[in-house]
Records
---
Amino acid sequence: MPTIFTHPAPMLALSLACGTRVIPPRLVVALLLFAMLPDLDGIGFYRGVPYGSWLGHRGFSHSLLFALTCGLSGFGVAPWLKASRRLTGGLIFLAALSHIALDALTNGGLGVALLWPFTDTRYFFPWRPIQVSPMSLARLFSERGLAVLYSELSWIWLPAFATALFVRHLRRRREQIKGNA
């Protein structure tokens, strides 16, 4: 899995690209939380839950059903987040789904239970460039941990924010052209 620090990166980048008129600050915070939420299953490591169990790490909380459930919860909290129900639900679904996709791009672990409860099979993408993160904070600050952070910077943070800045530039340019017309 990428580090807990990196899972919010796609949602941060999307928020930067769209701006606060499209994605209000409260919704941004919710997106960051939902992008990290699936890793609460990591508590199972300390509670004796077997890794390969549907309750284990990358089990049911890394499924399309879980992401859909998260998205549906967005419909209920949308007014409090100061956004439309459809936007909130869709983006929260996307936040949880981004977590699953990033984990499926890593080079370690058992994969993600994408299609749980229909199958317990764990999946990875065929291309897996992201170094899998150690499960402890202490090991993150080791030589291997630095390699993981470099991998995340190269494959997630830089592309996400370069794309966001490019999209933001295009949006501003379009607004300038409309204003001059």
---
Amino acid sequence: MLVSAAARIAAHAGTGGAGAMTVIVRVLLPVAANLLLALQLLLMADKRFYVTRIPVVFFAAVFLDRIIHLGVSPAMTGVLIALTLLEAVIYCATCRGAFRTCLWALLSWIVPCGIFFCDRQFRLLFMNVWRDSRAILIADCAIVLGIVMTILSSRPMPPYKEGDPYRMRPGDRVDGRKIRTGNPMDRVAGFIMPHRNGADNHIQFSVECSAMERYVHQKRREGLKHFGLTHVIIAAYVRCVAELPALNRFFSGQKVFSHNDVEVNMMVKKEMSLGAEEECLTVHFDPADTAADVYRKFDEGLARVMSPDDGGFDKLVKILNYIPGLLFRFVVHLLTFLDYYGLLPRFLLELSPFHGSMFITSMGSLGIPPITHHLYDFGNVPVFCAFGAKRTERELDSEGNVVVRKYLDMNWNTDERICDGHYYATVFKRIKHYMAHPEKLDVPPEEVLRDID
């Protein structure tokens, strides 16, 4: 595939005088198809290769162009076009696991091979291959050879059995699976409210935190010396995802997806000073995690980003800062385009603070009330949680006595396109319940519910 791309560029580099459509169909499409398929085979053949149609569509466009310029009868042209489209369908179905053998995909490539040999120019070149090693011949032969070798080396997916891990399907993203049976209004809402900030809802409430304080002190006595309110809030959120899985959805590309895991982001300062650098902490949780699991994973992630050898997000920002302003706008538009279609590489998703299940920020460490944050239009984070410093209130108990109670104020911003208001209301009631009874977070959930298909 890489040889084919390089040879095609070399073959057309010095020709000149070609029209825009010729360059697109004869150069850009096949080169893009070769590079995409090569990258998928090298980097993510175990998952992503089997769910994409893009290279197949590009290859089909290349072959359709060759058919149109063969000069055969209209009837034969129609037959070849139909067979080429059928080949693309069979190839996609084979990669999805619809067939138990790769034989059908292999046979389907007889038509594209025949198309090349029907092309008089290609036939003459091929017959004189030892005397005429033109780059275009190498490019065309390498395309067919590469795809045939790919089919021969592919193993069809076995039939799905109940309890098997989820398999990616066409339309899924590397960071989540597409919700296909959701409410039709979800899709309509994506076009009515295309930006996350326009679909941003805000709720503010306070939680009496005496039970959480006792729970935090207990955990610290048990050896979790850095355990705090942040761990309780995250653990409560993770438990809600286990019981109410629609909370873990996100909206991208005018479609609703479900995250593969619970990914929580937090910006942390490496030291408490005005000029200190900030680093993005990203931690992946399993919905079945207990409070102890949350503490362990969060603490490991925090130690990693606080070490002087890390700085993944910080390094990325410094690299982007070297890009000139005009070019940087193009880079942002390109990243937005790739993100829209779910094509951002996994390493960028891991570094990005704008992709995940929830963004959490603690204003308590700064000694101020929680801010009302916004959701980011870039990325896919659907929930932003901000909590502030604890405050005390003097209240009357049931017997008329004055008592002092501590409260934790919280502001939540949510994307209304992933689930409805009733669902969110249930989520926040459940979060408050677990914060009032945090000891329940020590026991794994009886069942982790899976979101709808």
